[in-house]
Backbone:
């Protein structure tokens, strides 16, 4: 798609956007940006053997943000008509308190923080950035690589063709386990057209696909009931949905069900915990990742505030937040402030090396934005958020890690968790796992929690496997707003955590 | 049609709600859907405005003003069913959207249980939208300056002394107000409207003690009525919350009486009420499947739904399909009296419909005989302190940190924080503890419920006490 295509979708042009930005800065303020969004959602739901429920929803609008230092004024309009955009821009401008336009613009990718404002000024750009001949906009620069190319966007797809696939999953699940009493299969997709324009004159556009398939089954054996869930989510087009994906999901939802029926709560206490590769990376996201988000650090709320450059865990441990994995649920060609997608190391070889920044926090800390400015929709202002967060592989053999534990817990998958950002305390619910006895996986366990403190847990990591796996599940992070993310981790040994049990 | 952005510019002042033109447009959409092939249709228009002012360390950090308007459609076409929504609410465009929606519905499999409710179940008294008493007309006079003043009035950053062995690192507060207006109509003649205002303020403080450890505290106030929110109480309460945790430690596990403060007790009530939902029952994903009419819980436990409590958050005259709400018991003297069954699940399960879910669930206050020790308590006098004194010793839970429950089995494990109490008094803060068990057994062991549910919450869940709960730490 080219610039005109996006202008046509949003029924606007550069001149109108410039007018809206000017209105946004009419009371002062350092920065103004516009975020246009048109998203088309489709859902198909199979229940009781039939695809008998579906929905189609569309959402259209523009969010206008004005920054005055670190202060934010935000308003949005569900119409992109000039009159409506100007009204929203003026509403957002109220943050500047009517002190008149200031000779300041924010530091953008200068790496010089607050003083960077003057460095941009030195380029001779007008204070509002409009008309900057150098800005050009990413629209003109083209991407080196589109992280989520599609043959046909989801809004152009004939959704009737997916009905057999959903029924195939249903039949496959039922054929694999005679104790299945209910199956639900949910195909959810959306196509977002995003266009951003800011007071630097940068024009950015992105066409974002997303597809998720979630399978839930209920099993009944001898009067006992259990449920299983499997999901698959990527920034893919329909061409990537295949019978192989369907069959894999059907296998996954029944996988380990025998163990789940046999699973018990173990005796609780403090013990070593081995986190299996893949989905248990949610612990990394929740217990550590949020504390790396720069807004919490800018406000002094995070347990990691003021610790940049310090060792926080053993050498050999590196943790990244990555927006550049092709087709990944957390991938972004550009974040929601128009900053190119990138990979950011929060921890390198055990040293806290970076927070995750949006433009506000980057300006505050005097560093470049890391492409983590994200938002749920045009209704929200961007804030620092994770993308795909994972620990990089170490050099340990996963089998050796398990063999090194005399008595502990192996966690296959956490279903959810929660963390207190200030204290770093976390609790995670173990969906499935095993007891480790004398270096071997023995009895299955379920419905227990592990509890601990993020920095303490990090410092207690004593082995990192060589088997990093990014989970394919439908992970959504709900910090103030919902955004799609993914998680990953290799097999990791934490020498001691509290496990809640009988 | 009134320009939404004019409302935006005005900061919500003078919001007139859904206009007669918008109501006509909704009716037109319904008629167009029927004339284009739908056998039945339900259409609703929703409009809302939200204003908020956020403070960081006593200064305005963010101001936002948002206005939304959306059209929702439930279409029944050739025995098939689909739901659709758009916020591109304009003549011409809407008709194309409806035609596409009808075409999409025809892709789906027929389902005989999908239909509009029996008209005899409709609410007929939701005419103006203001009948539940949730609309505060003072909303219309609030200016942007009023909002900033309200927000600033709640901040304490820089206004407190440094004694107490800690310092405040940051204070975040937010004042917000909103108005929601919804009009619904269907092809069987139902028309209903619901309008409500909402005012809220929250505060979160982070402190650091002399050892450098951080603690955070949170408090909030909310109400449909502007004069009932207590802004100035929030930051001091949040600060007390944070300070009270200094020195919190894990305790050795065991079985204790657990008292759950009303600020977080809905976390344990939600699994119970969700398990009575028709969808969970029909999908066999409920630990209360087959419980209707069964005496499962203690005699003292009565949970009622009170949707007609005028002026109280959660009040409503009709549910999401237009069915009239009713004042009813959900669990009476320990017996499960109802499931939440809409028209669809009524057909699927072959049982009469009720409503789609609880509106204002209320738990009748009590202290069990075993706990009361012969003393008599007036229902309305039972509160946290009364329950702590009656319980004597145990753990008071003031917050949950993570955890989950299994919908099918009811097994749960939650991280909790709060205080160890002895002789009815707070003794020491505790953290990093877990409670485990199963929901049915937990609620069978409920030994007290207060009359102290927090104002402004839709679910009126008070302080609760449970006996013999398994804690590990």
Residues:
């Amino acid at each position: 798609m080219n610039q005109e295509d996006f202008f046509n979708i949003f029924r606007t042009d550069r001149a109108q956007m410039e007018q809206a930005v000017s209105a946004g800065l009419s009371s002062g303020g350092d920065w103004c940006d516009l975020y246009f969004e048109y998203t088309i959602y489709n859902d198909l739901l199979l229940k009781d053997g039939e695809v008998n429920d579906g929905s189609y929803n569309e959402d259209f609008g523009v969010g206008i943000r004005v920054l005055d230092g670190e202060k934010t004024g935000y308003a949005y309009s569900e119409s992109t008509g000039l009159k409506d955009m100007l009204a929203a821009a003026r509403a957002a401008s109220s943050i500047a308190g009517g002190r008149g336009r200031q000779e300041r613009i924010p530091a953008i990718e200068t790496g010089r923080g607050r003083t960077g404002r003057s460095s941009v000024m030195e380029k001779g750009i007008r204070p509002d950035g409009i008309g900057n001949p150098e800005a050009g906009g990413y629209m003109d620069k083209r991407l080196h690589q589109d992280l989520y190319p599609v043959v046909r966007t989801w809004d152009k797809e004939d959704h009737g063709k997916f009905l057999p696939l959903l029924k195939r999953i249903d039949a496959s699940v039922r054929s694999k386990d005679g104790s299945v009493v209910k199956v639900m299969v949910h195909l959810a997709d959306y196509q977002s057209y995003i266009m951003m324009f800011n007071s630097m004159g940068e024009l950015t556009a992105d066409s974002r696909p997303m597809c998720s398939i979630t399978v839930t089954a209920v099993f009944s054996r001898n009067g006992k009931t259990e449920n299983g869930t499997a999901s698959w989510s990527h920034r893919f087009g329909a061409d990537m949905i295949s019978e192989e994906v369907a069959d894999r999901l059907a296998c996954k939802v029944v996988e380990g069900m025998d163990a789940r029926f046999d699973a018990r709560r173990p005796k609780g206490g403090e013990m070593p915990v081995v986190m299996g590769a893949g989905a248990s990376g949610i612990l990394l996201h929740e217990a550590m990742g949020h504390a790396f988000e720069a807004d919490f650090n800018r406000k002094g709320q995070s347990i990691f505030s003021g610790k940049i450059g310090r060792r926080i865990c053993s050498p050999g441990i590196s943790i990244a937040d990555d927006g550049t994995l092709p087709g990944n649920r957390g991938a972004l060609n550009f974040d929601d402030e128009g900053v190119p997608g990138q990979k950011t190391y929060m921890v390198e070889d055990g040293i806290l090396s970076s927070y995750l920044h949006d433009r506000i926090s980057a300006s505050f800390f005097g560093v470049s934005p890391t492409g983590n400015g994200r938002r749920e929709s045009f209704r929200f202002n961007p804030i620092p958020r994770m993308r795909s967060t994972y620990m990089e592989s170490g050099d340990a053999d996963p089998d050796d890690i398990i063999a090194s534990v005399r008595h502990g817990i192996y966690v296959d998958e956490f279903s959810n968790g929660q963390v207190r950002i200030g204290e770093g305390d976390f609790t995670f619910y173990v969906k499935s796992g095993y007891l480790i006895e004398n270096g071997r996986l023995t009895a299955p366990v379920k419905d227990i929690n592990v509890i601990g403190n993020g920095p303490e847990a990090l410092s207690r990591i004593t082995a990192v496997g060589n088997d990093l796996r990014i989970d394919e599940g439908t992970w959504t992070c709900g910090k103030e707003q919902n955004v799609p993310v993914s998680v990953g981790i290799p097999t990791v040994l934490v020498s001691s955590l509290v496990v809640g049990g009988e | 049609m009134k320009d939404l952005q004019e409302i935006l510019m005005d900061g919500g002042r003078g919001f007139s709600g859904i206009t007669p033109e918008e109501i006509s447009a909704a009716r037109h959409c319904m008629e167009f859907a029927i004339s284009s092939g739908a056998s039945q249709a339900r259409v609703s228009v929703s409009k809302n405005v939200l204003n908020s002012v956020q403070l960081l360390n006593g200064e305005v950090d963010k101001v936002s003003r948002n206005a939304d308007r959306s059209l929702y459609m439930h279409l029944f076409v050739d025995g098939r069913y689909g739901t659709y929504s758009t916020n591109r609410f304009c003549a011409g465009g809407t008709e194309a959207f409806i035609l596409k929606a009808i075409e999409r519905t025809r892709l789906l499999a027929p389902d005989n249980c999908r239909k509009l409710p029996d008209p005899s179940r409709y609410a007929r008294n939701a005419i103006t939208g203001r009948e539940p008493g949730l609309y505060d007309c003072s909303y219309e006079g609030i200016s942007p300056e009023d909002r900033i003043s309200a927000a600033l009035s709640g901040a304490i950053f820089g206004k407190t002394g440094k004694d107490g062995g800690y310092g405040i690192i940051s204070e975040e507060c937010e004042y917000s107000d909103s108005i929601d207006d919804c009009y619904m109509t269907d092809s069987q003649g139902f028309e209903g409207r619901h309008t409500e205002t909402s005012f809220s303020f929250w505060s979160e403080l982070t402190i650091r003690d002399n050892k450098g450890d951080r603690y955070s505290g949170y408090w909030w106030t909310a109400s449909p009525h502007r004069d009932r929110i207590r802004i100035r109480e929030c930051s001091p309460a949040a600060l007390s919350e944070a300070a009270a945790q200094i020195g919190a430690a894990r305790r050795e596990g065991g079985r204790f009486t657990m008292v759950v403060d009303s600020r977080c007790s809905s976390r344990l009530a939600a699994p119970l009420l969700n398990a009575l939902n028709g969808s969970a029952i029909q999908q066999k994903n409920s630990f209360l499947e087959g419980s209707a009419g069964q005496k499962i819980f203690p005699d003292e436990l009565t949970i009622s739904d009170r949707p007609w409590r005028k002026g109280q958050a959660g009040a409503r005259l009709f549910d999401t399909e237009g069915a009239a709400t009713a004042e009813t018991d959900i669990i009476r003297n320990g017996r499960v009296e109802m499931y939440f069954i809409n028209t669809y699940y009524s057909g699927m399960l072959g049982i009469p419909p009720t409503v789609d879910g609880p509106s204002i669930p209320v738990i009748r206050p009590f202290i069990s005989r075993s706990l009361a020790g012969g003393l008599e308590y007036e229902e309305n006098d039972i509160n946290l302190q009364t329950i702590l004194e009656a319980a004597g010793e145990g753990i008071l839970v003031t917050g949950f940190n993570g955890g989950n429950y299994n919908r099918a089995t009811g097994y749960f494990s939650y991280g909790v924080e709060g205080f160890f109490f002895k002789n009815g008094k707070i003794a020491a803060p505790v953290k990093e503890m877990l409670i485990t068990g199963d929901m049915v057994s937990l609620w069978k062991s409920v030994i007290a419920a207060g009359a102290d549910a927090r104002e402004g919450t839709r679910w009126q869940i008070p302080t609760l006490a449970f006996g013999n709960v398994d804690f590990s730490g």
